[in-house]
Every structure is written in C-alpha cells, then in structure tokens.
Design goal:
One of its GO terms (cellular component) is membrane. The protein is mostly helical. The chain is 69% helix and 0% strand.
C-alpha cells in the first residue's frame, strides 16, 4: 500500500475492454477489495471462541454477522482507496514492476487496466457507507452495549479508511501501528458488544492477533523500500538502516513470543497456553530466517500469513480447551 504524489502514475495502454462480462467486472472488484485476504476477518472466530459456551444463536449470531460484513466493507474501502493512491503516485507501478515476479499484477486492477480509477473511488465510497451501516446494525443487535466498545467500534470505522486517504495516516509514520491496531479494534470492541466486559485473556489475544498482520506487513515494506521512499512514505523499513530494520522486525517477533510466554505466569492464561502456541513461535523463527537472514522477503511475507492463520487456530484451540477444563 502506497501513497503521495511525487512519482507520476502509470496508465494502462488502452483503458478497459468495452466488452467485459459481468463476471470479469465482478472479479476485478473482488481483487480491488482484496477479498482473498481473509486474515483480519478471522478475528471474529477468535472472539467467538472466547465467549462462554461459544453460543451461535439469536443476538450473538446476528451481531457476529453484522460485525463481519462491516469489517469486510471497511477493509474493502481502505484497500480500494489505497490502490487509487498507489496508482496516482506511481508507487504501485514501482512495487509491482518486473522486479517483483512473486506478485501478480492482476491483484492491482487499476494497474492491470481492468477497472478505471473512478470505478475504484465509487466502490470505496460505497463500501465505506455499507460498512458503517453494518456496524450500526451490530450495535443495535448486540447483547451488550458498553460505552467503551461502542466508541471503539465508531473510532475504528472512522480511522480505518484513513490509511492512505483523508488523513493519510501511513504518510504520517503510523503505518506499522495502523496494521496492528486494526486487528486490536476487530477483537476487543466485538468481544465487548457480545459479553459486556473485558478480560485479561481477551486483551492478550487481541494484542497477539493484531501483531499478525503487522508481522507480514513489515516484510512487504522491506520489499517496497524503493517505491515507498519515492513517494515519501515513512515506513520503518524506509527510515531505518538495513540492520536497523532487521532489529526492528526481530524485536516484534520477540515481543510476540514474550507475550505468549508471560500470559501464563501472569495468571491471564493457563500454564499450557505457550505450548499450544508453540507452532506460532516456530513458524515465526522460520519467517525471520527466510526474510531477514536469507533476504527472501516476499517468501517470508507468505510465511507470515501462514503464521497468522496458525495463530488463529492455536488461539481458538486454547480457548476451547480452556472452556472444556474450566
């Protein structure tokens, strides 16, 4: 995801084919929305597993469904706005150029010429409105409405589209915090609406969940240094030296491991919690070795996505085991 007009946009040679089928157009919009990237949406599986008895009926089901649709719409709006910005400033053309064979150009429908810029802007605005309506429905159907959870949801709805549009938060040095904060915002307010409370375990799992997207995003940023520097986007990879960036990524990995290990002695999680999450720690070590030691950052990014999904499975397993032994 990239921004700020200093590099000119790369236009497709002849615009969109006039005879596109409805199916082709739908596929282009799904790519614009990054529909295949489900990682943030897994937050609600974690939230459900934290619920006492893991109910799936009545208000709980309706609230979960509305929360999920809202998440999908708001993320779709954010990434569509981001694609428009990256297209306008030319940074996506740099980052998805011939030197990035591991990335498919079809993932960027503006660059590929399957959508017009105006199509993407309209789509993003419509998704933003739809997401706000879905989350308003979630508040209405929720079993509980603690003020902190409602305000958290409102804040997330306002901030998420500002990644590279409006306030352009990633241009202000908040890119890494943003990636993690979206995950935190998808877990804690949702848990509050469904339970009316907050627990230490919910905070720990929200924190770990948010680190997941950050820990594959930093590898993307490492690959995208040239494009991001060209548009003056101050990611950690751009601002720090190569060694400093390696230390930064390593520190994030160690932070994740420290939280996993400390949860049990602090009384937040059962003693066996770190054992259930051991596959996450092992996969994270492999990811760091591949990306920061061997220099294959795009492969490490894919390993990070896998690690995040392993984390979700591990958290859900721990929660279900905890409920069974409570």
């Amino acid at each position: 995801m990239t921004h700020s007009p200093t590099v000119g946009p790369t236009r497709v040679p002849s615009g969109l084919p006039s005879g596109r089928s409805t199916g082709a157009r739908l596929r282009a919009y799904l790519r614009l929305a990054k529909a295949g990237m489900i990682d943030y949406y897994l937050s609600l599986v974690v939230v459900w597993s934290l619920l006492p008895g893991q109910p799936l009926s009545g208000p709980v089901s309706a609230t979960l469904a509305a929360l999920l649709l809202g998440q999908m719409c708001l993320v779709a709006a954010a990434v569509a706005f981001d694609d428009v910005t990256g297209y306008r400033d030319g940074s996506d053309a740099t980052n998805y150029g011939p030197d990035a064979p591991a990335r498919k150009l079809a993932r960027k429908p503006l660059l590929a010429g399957t959508l017009h810029e105006s199509d993407a802007v309209r789509f993003a605005r419509g998704a933003l409105v739809a997401g706000a309506l879905c989350w308003a429905t979630a508040v209405f159907t929720a079993p509980s409405r603690p003020a902190w959870a409602v305000l958290g949801l409102v804040a997330a709805a306002v901030v998420i589209p500002q990644y590279s549009w409006g306030l352009r938060l990633s241009y202000r040095g908040f890119q890494e915090v943003f990636l993690a904060a979206v995950g935190w915002a998808f877990v804690l307010p949702s848990y509050g609406l469904l339970t009316g409370r907050i627990t230490g375990l919910a905070v720990v799992e929200a924190f770990l969940f948010g680190l997941g997207p950050l820990l594959f995003g930093v590898y993307s940023n490492t690959h995208d240094i040239a494009g991001d520097r060209a548009v003056r986007r101050p990611t950690a990879a751009c601002v720090l030296s190569s060694r400093g960036n390696t230390v930064f990524v390593g520190a994030l990995c160690l932070l994740e491991t420290a939280v996993i290990v400390a949860a049990a002695p602090l009384g937040v999680a059962p003693w066996w919690f770190p054992l259930v999450l051991l596959p996450v720690t092992v996969t994270r070590a492999v990811q760091f070795t591949v990306g920061m030691v061997r220099g294959d950052v795009l492969r490490a990014r894919l390993t990070g996505i896998r690690a995040h999904r392993i984390l979700v499975v591990a958290l859900v397993t721990a929660n279900l085991l905890g409920a069974g032994t409570a």
